[in-house]
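Friendly challenge for the regulars: who can give me the structure tokens for this chain first? No prize, just bragging rights.
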Amino acid sequence: MDLSLTNNSLPAFSALDNPVRLEIINLLSKSKMNVKEIATAVGLSSTITIMHLNKLEAAHIIRTEKHGNQRISILTVDNITIHFPQQLYVPYEKYEFNIPIGQYTHYQVAPTCGLAGQTGFIGKVDNPKYFMNPERTDAGMLWFSNGFVEYTVPNYLAPDQQIKMIEFNVELSSEFPFSNNNWLSDITLSLAGKTLGTWTSPGDFSDVRGKFTPEWVYSDMNQYGLLKTIRISEYGTFIDGHHFSDVTISDIDAKRDNWTLRFSVPKTAEHCGGCTIFGKHFGNYNQDISFRTYYQEKIKSD
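First reply, four minutes later:
Bragging rights claimed.
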């Protein structure tokens, strides 16, 4: 489950703010249970227990099924990520633009793989040939089990401008046939031929529907990812504020007209669990790949 500091996340925060509900979560992490079993375990009446279960279900932490006269509770979340606002004062000018998910310029992918748009799949799924479908530019989500996709990033720097920092963010997750909330994948990010680092995605999430995922997308299909912010500075490369690699901004060739941004999952990765990239109108963040180049004017000598 992916939470942010907004009102939309209040039901989940409220549901977790109670020792009884935390005990219920721990019980359900071991096996699904009916109301009587849970009530006995926590030492409460069935009526009070149901009130707690309703709150957990409203927060999408559990779901319930009817088996005859019994109400069975099942835990649907095994990981909760809370995104705090990331604020960074940057005293530089910037070029900022968005790269549509389907506007990749090179790829080599293996099934399971596919593209999805606002109204349905784009081309046939699990067939890499359709990654060249002319309609791919309308894609809001793409996925592959191993391989890579590359985007050509324009470099708008003028000769009298000095690059100071690059920052981009993108919503990512693993790829599993349909979904698997606990499915590790080592996703490697590269820019301008430099490996920025490898991030291990914890899963391919369908515990709740993505906030912007179209209604046609099946509920047991990947719904959302985690928003990752990568920053390349003079001090190194950082992901969500944590050290990612020793690649610095001086390692990026600022004289090139463009750079190649690559997302890859090699077959040789320790956790070869695929990659899903979410764009506008999909997932939990209504955006494509957001890219920013920070610069300052070079000081002219007399």
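The chain has a mean pLDDT of 92. The chain is about 15% helix and 40% strand. Your move, everyone else.
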